[in-house]
Amino acid sequence: MRKICVVVGSRANYSSIKSVMTAVKKHPKLKLQLVVGASALLDRYGAVVQTMEEDGFVPDATVHMLVEGETPLTMAKSTGLGLLELATVFDRLKPDIVVTVGDRFETLATAIAATYMNIPLAHTMGGEVSGTIDESIRHAVTKLAHLHFPANEDAAKRIIRMGENPKTVHMVGCPRMDIVDEIAKKYRDTTDKSFLKKEGVGGSVDFTKPFLLIMQHPVTTEFGDGEQQIRETLTVVETLKMPTIMLWPNADAGSEDIARGMRKFREKHEHGYIRFYKNLPLHTFIPLMMHTACMIGNSSAAIREGSFLGTPAVNIGTRQTGREHGKNVLNCGYHSTDILKAVKAQLKHGRYSANPLYGNGDAGRKIAAILSVCPLSVQKRIQY
Amino acid sequence: MRKICVVVGSRANYSSIKSVMTAVKKHPKLKLQLVVGASALLDRYGAVVQTMEEDGFVPDATVHMLVEGETPLTMAKSTGLGLLELATVFDRLKPDIVVTVGDRFETLATAIAATYMNIPLAHTMGGEVSGTIDESIRHAVTKLAHLHFPANEDAAKRIIRMGENPKTVHMVGCPRMDIVDEIAKKYRDTTDKSFLKKEGVGGSVDFTKPFLLIMQHPVTTEFGDGEQQIRETLTVVETLKMPTIMLWPNADAGSEDIARGMRKFREKHEHGYIRFYKNLPLHTFIPLMMHTACMIGNSSAAIREGSFLGTPAVNIGTRQTGREHGKNVLNCGYHSTDILKAVKAQLKHGRYSANPLYGNGDAGRKIAAILSVCPLSVQKRIQY
Amino acid sequence: MRKICVVVGSRANYSSIKSVMTAVKKHPKLKLQLVVGASALLDRYGAVVQTMEEDGFVPDATVHMLVEGETPLTMAKSTGLGLLELATVFDRLKPDIVVTVGDRFETLATAIAATYMNIPLAHTMGGEVSGTIDESIRHAVTKLAHLHFPANEDAAKRIIRMGENPKTVHMVGCPRMDIVDEIAKKYRDTTDKSFLKKEGVGGSVDFTKPFLLIMQHPVTTEFGDGEQQIRETLTVVETLKMPTIMLWPNADAGSEDIARGMRKFREKHEHGYIRFYKNLPLHTFIPLMMHTACMIGNSSAAIREGSFLGTPAVNIGTRQTGREHGKNVLNCGYHSTDILKAVKAQLKHGRYSANPLYGNGDAGRKIAAILSVCPLSVQKRIQY
Amino acid sequence: MRKICVVVGSRANYSSIKSVMTAVKKHPKLKLQLVVGASALLDRYGAVVQTMEEDGFVPDATVHMLVEGETPLTMAKSTGLGLLELATVFDRLKPDIVVTVGDRFETLATAIAATYMNIPLAHTMGGEVSGTIDESIRHAVTKLAHLHFPANEDAAKRIIRMGENPKTVHMVGCPRMDIVDEIAKKYRDTTDKSFLKKEGVGGSVDFTKPFLLIMQHPVTTEFGDGEQQIRETLTVVETLKMPTIMLWPNADAGSEDIARGMRKFREKHEHGYIRFYKNLPLHTFIPLMMHTACMIGNSSAAIREGSFLGTPAVNIGTRQTGREHGKNVLNCGYHSTDILKAVKAQLKHGRYSANPLYGNGDAGRKIAAILSVCPLSVQKRIQY
User: Fold this and answer.
1) Interatomic CA distance for residues D382 and C127, integer angstroms
2) Which member of D44, D67, D256 has the closest CB to residue B66?
3) Would an 8 Å CB–CB cutoff place A378 in contact with chain D?
4) Do the chains contact at C88 and B88, CB–CB below 8 Å?
5) What domains can you pick out in chain A, each with its CATH number?
6) What's the ipTM?
7) Which of A21, A87, C201, C220 is least surrounded by Cβ atoms within 10 Å, i.e. has the fewest?
8) Number of B–C residue contacts, CB under 8 Å
């Protein structure tokens, strides 16, 4: 029995790795070890750990690692604290493989702890290009990882060009699409949309009319600009006055700026048409993406899930620059006039047809199968 | 005036960056900020910080970051603690560029702190291949760095193949050779070798006879094997019974194993012909390399300084695998018979002619010149 | 010139030490060093550091030390992180005396860092009894401190009974009263209350009518009960429907519970008569205390400032148990019927006459004078 | 079953709590949880954790917490790191009572972590007077602890005078004496002393002749004086040239100074009559105390075990000032002439008769019995 230790640090990471966790748990030759940390533990970010427990995943360890402040300084410190804590956890759990997701600071902390402790490291969602510090982190983790599970072909090729051994690079699609697929099948034919009304704070959105879905995160390399950036987006919202769903940002350097902009907007006006959500469970979020008239912001969901679901989307600014996307995405700058123009084009176009760019729904099972048989070694050497 | 913050964490790193520090300090458009941390602060490792102060470099910050234990666990923790501390230091010093050296855990901590804090990062000695965890760390730091100063052509090409922008890659040679060159010129014609006798503990080595120079560090991916590895080397020493200079290992996971092996050897026998050193100042170490009959162990000095000085060397095991070397180096396995065979071949051959593979003595000035004019940006994107 | 290093970690601590800071800054033989940390740096808690800078105090160091979570676990971790960070700061600033305030986790971290680093420690507001973990922390700090500045006679006697040298115990009154006195003089004759209307979120409170002032913090030894406790208080608010000012709780284990209770209350009802504040500057808070019909909650302000100002107050639960108070305070249990009864009694009674129990407005100057001449020694011995 | 979590951080603490651990392990209503940390894990300090495992105690958690440096700065940092780590451990083990020993930095870290996490804290060896920072730490821990197990009457009275509830103060004697008693009984009639010869490094001591036993630790409030202090002691050793057993110092701020003094002494001379030990198991150490002609230094063992065993002892300097001792101890200053005079007096006097000042051998059982039935509460209030 190989012990596979998955580290989950945020709501986004959970949905990106959930199908792997399920497949590992079910696999006869694998034993799942679950470590939950960072914002996934916090009430302020929707306490994803509770959702996980409701889904049947009991953490083997919980790791508080966020140093308050949400500045570049505290982000570096949170990585350091995470490293201190995760080393303790790995020393206790003694996993055969550690699995880390994406490009967040807890991803990097996980990668370094595992690498120094001579534990083989598997990395999902590597090799992608995005044009912020997240890209540097993602590639650094690739150079530390012993097994790679990129989400698309483009990313797989990039990992190999970076000098990784092709035998360790397995293009399996994005495990997030497994979940998206499952939920999409369930809600494809639902006509009753009342389940969309629960949760959130603010106005009472009418889901029978076309509605907007907004998700805008801070750009860490543009620290300090967040409040202005979200204000531009909110100007568009105010102009359109369509029913609007808006999510609070991720815990990152700068998220406080975005949140402040949102709070000021909320406090200044009485907006009956806009509703705010801390964290949406995927079974609410995916139906929203299936039915929204236009998704707005800089979340990778618009690109990844969006291509799979055919969601019209407007991607703002630099956060996703270079990430391979389908026709469903229109890119634009931060200014409200640019955003407004792009949104209007999408509202005119309507929904797109599906595109399996980021997988077709079986990534979790493929990854578990590979983890159960792949050779394990901590010796690595660049291929050139 | 650009503020250039150099972080030094070990005796080896100091000699690898000293000529850069000197050139930065002298440059009219640059201001040197010096951060000293990790083993460079500790008595047990020769308190390199004192040497630095004697050389006229006053630290702007000192950073205790080593968690005791010297196991893989504590190495991960030391990286985490270093990250917590260095973030504080950078927040206070507000450098324009941070300079980090090589591939140690403090190198990685420095790189992450600077990167998350949106400070441009320059990296020296990147792109080399060595076949241990150090290689992974080195390449991960490359993926985080904004400016690259590789020590040889081979390394420069590798950095570019990894996707770094060629405009940010400057092949300048190894700054360590600047110092080596300076010292070598001074001692080339010295006939009086009495200065070699000071310091150290143990037997009284006769430097008029051919002598061995041993420097063997732990291999972090072979944690637990260190005591056996050094025992094999010491078997060769005991067989040859030549005058021998032996250095204590670096502070790394496993160094306690090497040290234990050395202590046991020392305590078991009365060896009049062997002398132990904690830390040798370069002006002692380089003359030793100029005069030794054979250097033995797994230090990169045998490869880098060795090629420059023409020192006959036996490189043991995997620690330097893949690193470009000159003819002066013979590689062998850990077993005493392999080592003995290689040493005898080198004793027979004698000294080699010089080879400028790792630079020709002006790397420090070149780096300072580039740092004073290069464009500064924290935006990075892979080139493919 | 003695360097006096004051560490401030929260809004409450700032107003408790501000007059000392002013007096130290003005004193010819003293030099103020200011360290700001913990919640005093955070937007979520009103970024007190900005207020300090507006008041002319520039921090010599800022120290992020809060580990997110606000549970007992993260409170312990925040103390640990604070200790790591404050040790670095003291090593750099090399103060002659460190001054720490009260009984918070940053107080303890400050005390330990100073004590281990052989820096004389002065402690204000020691010796008081309060019946929660804060009391234990406060007394532990007393056993570490070398100089004591208790706020009232009762506390001074207790410190001496604990075995401290009477020569090191200086009863000076509470420095917080210095500020209160200053502000009270300014607003005593003000008829225009429009300044009270600025800031805050929620209903528009009519300050010409009798209004309530609520300030209820979590009780760390009753962790988990916070939401229920605040619900009882809010039931009283809803019954009375008087104009109400309500403050968000301190950053402590359990404050998230209180905040959740408050958010739920706010989201459930449309309460035109209640207004929420993150942080009130003293020049707003003190006039509120001067004019409120009744202060409700468990803040020490009701006892300390309340006695000085003659504010009718209802003190709920165990948080202040044992603290010496004047006639202006009625104690009651957590249940809404108990609270309601006490509030009604206070509304009937009206304001009380002033009582100098916690000082008469010159504590800051007294403390500075003592700090400038007192003998400094880190040698301590219990007196029996 | 109450879960009793004992935290052990050094060789000295292990022998001070071992009989409690044994009694808890055997008690039908108690379950032992063992946490081993700090120097107890390190090779350099004799890896006490191995001894513990040989004794049948398997750690439930190991906690690396020593930041390298052994300066006041790193001591504060080690406390902070310990606090971060121990909080994680307690969160996982969820003990009903935490037991902490004495007055070391890990004692304080343990006390704070437990207190903030609302876990009842039991403290052994509180209430004693010693005249260094250890005394402040010890009393601060008393103010945090909920249960007190002082080692003698004098200490018990002091704890009560400090305001602790007498019902929580249990004078049981020192658990260390339980072990001493056991070993003393075993070796009382042994004539063969060959077991004393094993281990250690240096000369071959003749145990049939009168021999000295030296144990001198750094005095943290006299940081920087350690090398000079040990030099004075070693001058006496050199004058007497008697067979001598010498132990390396504890891991504390300043121990590197003591160690350096010892290393210089060892390296300068060829001393056939002196032998150095890293760590002596109690079954070697106690017989040495039973047979030594005179014990020299500043260890509390001379006072505690010394009174029980009747060992002639010379106590140097301030480290034990104020600790209650029997007639077997002569106090003196740091100067070699003072020390020599006192040693000669003891050599003349010979052994003393036993004195049960610090217990009579049943403290462990008494403590376990109390832990199994005592009321548990984290509510504390000073008694005056």
Assistant:
1) 10
2) D67
3) no
4) yes
5) 2-174+359-373 (3.40.50.2000), 180-358 (3.40.50.2000)
6) 0.85
7) C201
8) 13
